[in-house]
């Protein structure tokens, strides 16, 4: 029987259409999550693995932040070999909350 202990569970994704505005705003209010979203916005889809982000948190906290972003419909993840790759669900999120990402991704004045 194959050893399944090394297999990760597939991440659960929430479609932006199913996200209340309060959930979206709460996800974007955290500075670490906002940094993750900004880094994803500045790169091509599926090019950032979870360990490639420049954020000041450990693996467990990073995992939590990605779970919050997935639950808010902001991020989609997929496993490719040992890495978990990410993409910002910008188009879907913009359809649900027009202009919100544009506002939070603006450079600070």
TrEMBL record:
Limits of the HTH arsR-type domain: 13-108
Alphabetic keyword roster: DNA-binding, Transcription, Transcription regulation
Molecular function terms, GO-annotated: DNA binding; DNA-binding transcription factor activity
Entry-linked CDD domains: HTH_ARSR
One Pfam family it belongs to: HTH_5
InterPro entries to which the protein is assigned, alphabetical: ArsR-like_HTH, HTH_ArsR_DNA-bd_dom, HTH_MetalResp_TranReg, WH-like_DNA-bd_sf, WH_DNA-bd_sf
Highest taxon of source: Bacteria
Alphabetized PANTHER family for the sequence: TRANSCRIPTIONAL REGULATOR, ARSR FAMILY (PTHR33154), TRANSCRIPTIONAL REGULATORY PROTEIN (PTHR33154:SF12)
Protein name: Helix-turn-helix domain protein
Source organism of this protein record: Streptomyces platensis
């Amino acid at each position: 029987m194959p050893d399944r202990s090394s297999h990760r569970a597939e991440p659960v994704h929430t479609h932006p259409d199913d996200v209340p505005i309060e959930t979206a705003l709460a996800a974007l209010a955290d500075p670490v999550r906002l940094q993750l979203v900004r880094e994803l916005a500045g790169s091509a889809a599926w090019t950032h693995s979870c360990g490639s982000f420049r954020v000041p948190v450990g693996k467990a906290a990073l995992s939590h932040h990605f779970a919050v972003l997935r639950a808010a419909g902001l991020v989609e993840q997929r496993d490719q070999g040992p890495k978990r790759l990410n993409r910002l669900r910008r188009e879907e999120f913009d359809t649900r909350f027009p202009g919100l990402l544009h506002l939070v991704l603006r450079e600070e004045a």
